[in-house]
Each structure stands twice: as structure tokens, then as C-alpha cells.
Specification:
single chain, alpha+beta, conserved putative lor/sdh protein from methanococcus maripaludis s2 fold, OB fold (Dihydrolipoamide Acetyltransferase, E2P), 4 domains, six-stranded antiparallel β-barrel, four-stranded antiparallel beta sheet, 7 helices, elongated
């Protein structure tokens, strides 16, 4: 027990001695540090009274003096190592190429509808299937109409009456006023009935045939108003037709439309009269040239595009509606101040280029970018012709500038 107590007492004394030594060491260090500060303060020269008043102003002016733009320094050897290329800003001709997809559509100016202006029944159908090619003036159907037959008979009766009045007037002589009045009335009635027949699309040749034969035509032939293909046929053999009822739709495919979609941000560059190169995957190597005829005035909300229209000839009928085409528009934008796209750092709301100030110094500068085309970007504000900028590896320069806090 005595040995244990002795050991515990010795350990406790050692701990107390260590704590006292550590406290004395810290106190001594503070003491020496305080003494050194006092000596330095006493050794420092005290400024004169006037010097404090007049010397503070220049120092404040130096601190408040505006600093020039900060630059990033990249030595020449490091520029070569990281691949920095210096280019000169200059105005160059700029062309914008717009590529889009188009569809072949019917030329709406060459669509025609065949109908009738009288009530009747189709007795004979000359065009009996959809897709048949018809020529202008070719008969398409023959319609029997009781109303048309009665009008023709009325016309024949008026002709007969007119001839009788003319014969009586010739026998009585020119002095008979009654016969002259009757003859004029007969002429008026004949002209009125003839005009009614013309309104029903009875041709002058058919009217002459009625006059020559003295018999009404039983059926009225319906002729094609244009050359083209029958797109739709509602006429059937023996069916009853009413005035204005559509019987056939005809499309002339000697020329077709190409309708293409243009995005809304490209619309300011689009105008009628521009040339386009049109190609089809169905005809490899064949390129057609067309002129823009019309820009549609509305925008499609789902795709944010507007439609433009081209017209191209189709003499062989190889171009068929609903075919897809590739449309390429090359637009001359004139001479503009441009820099390569790789020379511009797009920092979200800012566009930054690094201007070469010489001796390895690069100045970050904000610019206002315009159109982009052919790998070049138009510079609206921020650069002048003749200035030199970093055209490659500028992202490394930008990283260095951000590390140094020059660009935030």
C-alpha cells in the first residue's frame, strides 16, 4: 500500500509541474511579443504634424484613381504550348444557309370542280374511275333534264313563230306596223331563251344544232373545264344530280407547289423572290431551282414555324403531291464585322472575347453578338476592325482569368 501511494503522489506532482511549466511558457511568449511591439513602435519615426495633413490626400487620391481594364498575362511560350491563335477582326461577306424540309402540294390555282346547273339524271358516264387523265373540253358525263328539254322546245317554238312573223311581214310589206312589232317581240323572246340556255352551259354549237335539226337535245354533255387528273369522283351512273352538286375534282399537275417550314427566328431573313435549291431522295443527284413566291402570314403555334411556297414545273409528272423534299436557301447578308464562333465565350447573359493587348496580355471584353453563319459570328458592338483577339484556346485564357478574379 505504501508503494502505491508513493507512485500516485509522484505522478500527481509531475502533472502539476507540467501544467505550471506550460503556463509560464505562454506567459513568457506573450511578454516577449509585447516587448518587441513596444520597441518597434518607439523605433518608428513619427511624422511631422504637417506631413500627416498634407501626405494623406495624395495617398487617398492614389487609392481612388480609376484603374484601367485588367488583363491576363500568358507568356509567348505558354501560348504556343496551349495552342493560342491570334486573329484580326475584319468585315467579311457573310452568307446564311437555311436548310429545311418541304412537301409537294397541288397548285391551288390549277384545281377545278365539275358540277351542273340543272336538275337531272346521269344517263351516261364517260369518266368512270378516279385518277383518269382528261383534257380540256372532253365530255365527262351526259345528263337528262326534263326542264332543259322543255326549254329547248320553247326555243324551237319561238323560232317557228319568228319565221312565220317574218314571212307575214314580207307579204304585207314594210308598212305593216303590227307585223314589225310582232317580229321584234319574237326576236326578244328568242334572245332571252337563248341566253337562258347559255346560262345552263349549252354551247353555241349545241344551240345551232338545235336550230338546224328542229329537235331538242335529250341529254346535256358536261365537259371538262381543264386538263388534268380526276382527284375525286362522286358521279355514278343513273344517279340524280341537283344544281351546284359537285361531280368531279380535277387537278392540273403540269406545275406543283413546294411548301416548306421556316422557324420564326429565321423569318427576318426571308423574303419573296429568293432562290432555293430543291432536291428529292427519290431522284439522287437531281437538284431543282425554284423561286419563293409567297410567305404565309400566319405562324403554326405547335412548331413555331411559318410556311413559305415555291412553284416548280412538273412536265413529266414525276413530282407527286405529298412527296418530301429537301430545301436549301442561301441568303447573302452582305459585308459584316465578324469573328469566329470559337473566339466567343458564351457566359449565359454575356458574350466575352479576349483582346490581344501585346506582350502576352489579354483583355476580357464584352461584345454584342448578332447573326451566326458559316462558323462566324457578327459583332454589333464591342470590337473595331483591326483589333486582334484570341481565336483558339481562349477557354484556357478564360479559366486563368476566372481563377485570378478578373472575370466573374
Amino acid at each position: 500500500m505504501n508503494k502505491k501511494n508513493i507512485i500516485i503522489t509522484v505522478v500527481a506532482l509531475l502533472l502539476i509541474a507540467g501544467l505550471l511549466l506550460a503556463g509560464l511558457t505562454k506567459t513568457g511568449a506573450r511578454f516577449f511579443q509585447h516587448s518587441a511591439r513596444e520597441k518597434m513602435t518607439q523605433a518608428a519615426p513619427k511624422p511631422a504634424a504637417g506631413a500627416h495633413q498634407h501626405g494623406a490626400a495624395p495617398q487617398a487620391q492614389q487609392e481612388q484613381a480609376p484603374q484601367g481594364p485588367q488583363t491576363v498575362e500568358i507568356p509567348q511560350d505558354k501560348q504556343q504550348l496551349i495552342g493560342v491563335k491570334i486573329i484580326t477582326v475584319a468585315a467579311k461577306p457573310l452568307h446564311k444557309v437555311i436548310r429545311t424540309v418541304g412537301r409537294i402540294e397541288y397548285d391551288e390555282r390549277k384545281l377545278a370542280t365539275v358540277n351542273t346547273k340543272i336538275e337531272g339524271w346521269i344517263e351516261k358516264l364517260h369518266v368512270d374511275y378516279t385518277g383518269k387523265y382528261v383534257r380540256k373540253g372532253e365530255p365527262m358525263a351526259e345528263i337528262y333534264s326534263p326542264e332543259l328539254v322543255s326549254t329547248q322546245q320553247e326555243y324551237l317554238n319561238i323560232l317557228k313563230w319568228s319565221k312565220q312573223n317574218s314571212a307575214q311581214a314580207a307579204e304585207a310589206g314594210s308598212g305593216s306596223t303590227l307585223n314589225q312589232m310582232l317580229s321584234r317581240d319574237a326576236e326578244s323572246l328568242r334572245d332571252a331563251v337563248r341566253q337562258r340556255l347559255r346560262f345552263w352551259d349549252i354551247t353555241d354549237a349545241q344551240i345551232r344544232k338545235i336550230e338546224e335539226t328542229g329537235k331538242p337535245i335529250r341529254t346535256l354533255a358536261i365537259y371538262s373545264p381543264a386538263s388534268g387528273y380526276v382527284l375525286q369522283k362522286t358521279a355514278q351512273q343513273g344517279m340524280r344530280v341537283m344544281p351546284g352538286e359537285k361531280l368531279f375534282d380535277i387537278a392540273d399537275l403540269s406545275s406543283v407547289w413546294v411548301v416548306a417550314d421556316i422557324y420564326e427566328y429565321e423569318l427576318p431573313l426571308i423574303k419573296t423572290g429568293q432562290k432555293a435549291a430543291i432536291s428529292l431522295s427519290y431522284f439522287p443527284g437531281k437538284v431543282l431551282t425554284a423561286t419563293m413566291e409567297y410567305v404565309y402570314p400566319v405562324l403554326t403555334g405547335e412548331t413555331r414555324t411559318a410556311k413559305v411556297r415555291f412553284s416548280i414545273p412538273n412536265p413529266g409528272g414525276q413530282l407527286k403531291p405529298q412527296m418530301f423534299t429537301n430545301v436549301e436557301l442561301k441568303i447573302n447578308l452582305g459585308s459584316r464585322l465578324v469573328v469566329p464562333e470559337d473566339a466567343v465565350i458564351n457566359a449565359g447573359t454575356r458574350q466575352i472575347v479576349y483582346v490581344d493587348k501585346g506582350e502576352g496580355n489579354f483583355e476580357p471584353r464584352d461584345i454584342t453578338a448578332g447573326l451566326s453563319a458559316e462558323g462566324m459570328v457578327e459583332v454589333i458592338r464591342g470590337l473595331k476592325p483591326g483589333e486582334k483577339i484570341a481565336g483558339a484556346a481562349n477557354f484556357l485564357i478564360d479559366s486563368e482569368a476566372r481563377l485570378k478574379g478578373i472575370v466573374k
